[in-house]
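Below is how a single chain appears once it has passed through the pipeline. First comes the sequence as given, then the structure the pipeline wrote out for it. We keep one example in the README because the format questions we get most often are answered faster by looking than by reading.
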Amino acid sequence: MKLLKTILSLIFAAVLSANAGSVLCIGLNDYNKYPDLKHAENDAAEIAKMFASMGHTVTLLTRDQVTTAGVMTALESKPDFIYFAGHAETGRLMVQDGEIELSAIANASTMMFLDCCYVGRGLKTTGTMKILAASEYEAFESDGHGLFTKYLLTWFGDGKGLVEDALTAYLQKNIRAETGGWQKPVLGYI
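Resulting structure:
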């Protein structure tokens, strides 16, 4: 099991450092059925900018582009990595015109980072796609970003790669400290 984790860590680090990789970044602030968010679209744009600076091909979806059809069309390119900031429920991402089941996109990518409330609930210990989720419950905002994204940007901005155990520990430590233990990132699978 430890060897498998090491191999997966190396694969994910290679995906993030490879110049030919593709990344899909999605952010949505305005919802009809949920309270509007302040920083999700900006967070997606900042993550997209970070990956572009690393040599990745990036697709950014915001506002009216974040529909079921828009997201599913973008997923047809099989991006190496997906980032989503917005509203979610257990196992579902909320978009302009409804919701997208995580299971429906499980084969579209290698890994997802999800800066959303509740999306960490129900993740499994094994599965098709690895997910680093902001929280099992509430996810907070701080300093113009989702708290999860704020620390992702700091981690990658410091030149650290994707070694998920170290990244997860870093996120958990800092986010727990900033929220008094209320928000805890979760690493799991669907």
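The CA atoms of residues 139 and 155 lie 18 Å apart.

See the next section for the split statistics.
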